Amino acid sequence: MDFETYRESIAQDAPPAGLSMAAEALWWEAKGDWQQAHKCAQQQGDAEGAWVHAYLHRIEGDLRNAGGWYGRAGREMSTAPLKEEWETIARALLG
To answer: Is the dihedral of CA 44, 11, 33, 56 positive or negative?
Structure first.
C-alpha cells in the first residue's frame, strides 16, 4: 500500500486489511484512538513495533518510557513535530 492510500484510509471505519500491527497502530492513533493504537503496537515485538510504541508514549508525554522504546527500536528519541514523525514512521512501515 502506498502512503497516500494509507492516509486516505483513515477516513474509513476500520483499517485496511493486510497492515502490520505497527502500521495499524499508527492508523488507530491517527483516528484518535490511542488505547487501540497502543494495543496494536504491543502486538508487534520487533524494532518497527518498538518505534511505533515509542512514538505513542511520546504523544502521551511519557518521555522516559518513550526513550526506552526508542532504544529498543535502535533509534534516537525524535524531536520532530509529532505529525512529521507519524508520517516518517508510516512511510518507513509501508516501504
So the answer is: positive
What is the maximal distance between C-alpha atoms in the chain?
A: 34
Digit-coded pLDDT (tens) for 78-87 = 999 999 999 9
Around Cβ 89, how many Cβ atoms within 10 Å? 23
Integer CA distances (angstroms), 6 to 1, 42, 90, in order:
7, 21, 9
The reported pTM is 0.95
Q: Which of 70, 64, 68, 65 is nearest to 85 (CA)?
A: 70
Non-local CB neighbours of 50 within 8 Å, separated by 6+ positions:
69, 70, 72, 73
Residue where the block lists cell 532504544: 71
